[in-house]
Design a protein that fits this description.
Helices cover 37% and strands 13% of the residues. The protein contains 10 helices and 13 strands. Helix 4 crosses helix 10 (341-356), helix 5 packs antiparallel against helix 7 (225-244) and helix 7 (225-244) crosses helix 9. Strands 1-9-7-8-5-2-3-4 form an 8-stranded mixed beta sheet, sandwiched between helices. The protein has a 3-stranded mixed beta sheet with strand order 6-11-10. With 364 residues, the protein is an alpha/beta fold. Mean pLDDT is 87; it is low at 1-10 and 12-48. The protein has a domain at 64-274: Spore Coat Polysaccharide Biosynthesis Protein SpsA, Chain A (Alpha-Beta Complex). One of its GO terms (cellular component) is membrane. This is Hydroxyproline O-arabinosyltransferase-like domain-containing protein. It holds the Pfam family HPAT. Its main location: membrane.
Length: 364
């Protein structure tokens, strides 16, 4: 009898081993199913989530239309004027499109005097920095221009989009900000953590870790006007201090003012929602996907076979710096076969704008 009872009853050790075996088999099966489900979803919905950081509760936030004012700072140089004309053309084309929350438009002209575009583009004239203060770095006038505009202008919208002359709107732009969280674009070359020693000159330890500083510039950013009114003076002051500091000036170079905005925002406790779909930058970004803005800051150089020759003038090229002293001609030649969609679209959009803007060739 004792033998039969011991044979009919499993030992505790055997039950434990059996339970573990069932657990691991079930775990592996569930993992395999989830893995295949994820693969299927990726196949059905190409691309990745463009939002790289947003508080979870804001992902679900929806509400009524929240228009934002589009503002671009500019000089009266021919180089700046033709870019503003192209940008404003595409703003008007996209403003009333489906899903747009684009409101009014202002070109903040920091030349201190009116120019020839006053009747074509809504413009607010502000003063430049005193002579010599920018030390040849004209972008240093941008935060000072915003400070003056915010103090003196009447702005109806609650939100503001800070844009640049070399931005082309390719889709109607909704308000990507959420309540007190502005939306910005993460630049791959803005790396606060790699410059922590310099950053600490302007962002003391008591303000928190350097990782609190977003990898952004001031543009493109959609932000509440009330937030920007607080950030702008700090942004201006930090920009000036950075330019005066030889180590900082050397380290940050042409993106100094971008770092200044990122630091100023963090000093005011402002965290940005980082939107990779905010814009693309040809020739590095090849496709439009679901982007809203093309930023044509880089030159696009290709062989006639469609091969990129960056750093070397190509057989075919489009580079805004080729037109420093006057606008590009109408009907630019299209890129050769094999050039990415982003570059082709950019040139087509420039051509459409120049074909429809009256008196385009004035000043050439």
């Amino acid at each position: 009898m004792n033998v039969r009872r011991s044979m009919g009853r499993a030992s505790p050790l055997f039950l434990v081993l059996l339970g573990l075996g069932v657990f691991f088999a079930t775990y592996n099966l569930v993992t395999l199913v989830i893995h295949h489900q994820r693969r299927e979803r990726r196949a059905e919905l190409p691309g990745v989530d463009p939002v790289t950081r947003m508080p979870d509760e804001l992902r679900r936030a929806e509400g009524s239309r929240r228009p934002f004012h589009v503002v671009v700072t500019a000089t009266d140089a021919a180089y700046s004027r033709w870019q503003c004309r192209v940008m404003y053309y595409w703003y008007k084309r996209m403003k009333d499109g489906e899903g747009s929350e684009m409101g009014g438009f202002t070109r903040v002209l920091h030349s201190g005097k009116p120019d020839s575009l006053m009747d074509e583009i809504p413009t607010f004239v502000v003063n430049p920095l005193p002579a010599g203060v920018d030390r040849g770095y004209v972008v240093l006038n941008r935060p000072w221009a915003f400070v003056q505009w915010l103090e003196k202008a009447t702005i109806e919208e609650e939100y503001i989009l800070m844009a640049e002359p070399d931005h082309v709107f390719v889709r109607p732009l909704p308000n990507l900000a959420r309540d007190d969280y502005p939306a910005g674009f993460p630049f791959f070359y803005i790396k606060p953590a790699e410059h922590s020693q310099i950053i600490r000159k302007f962002f003391p330890k008591e303000k928190g870790p350097v990782t609190n500083i977003d990898p952004i510039g001031n543009s493109p950013v959609i932000i509440k006007k009330s937030k920007l009114e607080k950030i702008a003076p700090t942004w201006m002051n930090i920009s000036l201090k950075m330019k005066e500091d030889p180590e900082t000036d050397k380290a940050f170079g042409w993106v100094l003012e971008m770092y200044a905005y990122a630091i100023a925002s963090a000093l005011h406790g402002v965290q940005h929602i980082l939107r990779k779909d905010f814009m693309i930058q040809p020739p590095w970004d090849l496709k439009l996907d679901s982007t809203f803005i093309i930023h044509f800051t880089y030159g696009c150089d290709y062989t006639l076979k469609g091969e990129l020759t960056y750093g070397k003038i190509g057989e075919w090229r489009f580079d805004k710096r080729s037109f420093l002293h006057g606008p590009p001609p109408r009907n630019l030649s299209l890129p050769p076969p094999g050039v990415p969609e982003s570059v082709v679209t950019l040139v087509k959009m420039v051509n459409e704008a120049t074909a429809n803007i009256p008196n385009w060739d004035d000043g050439r």
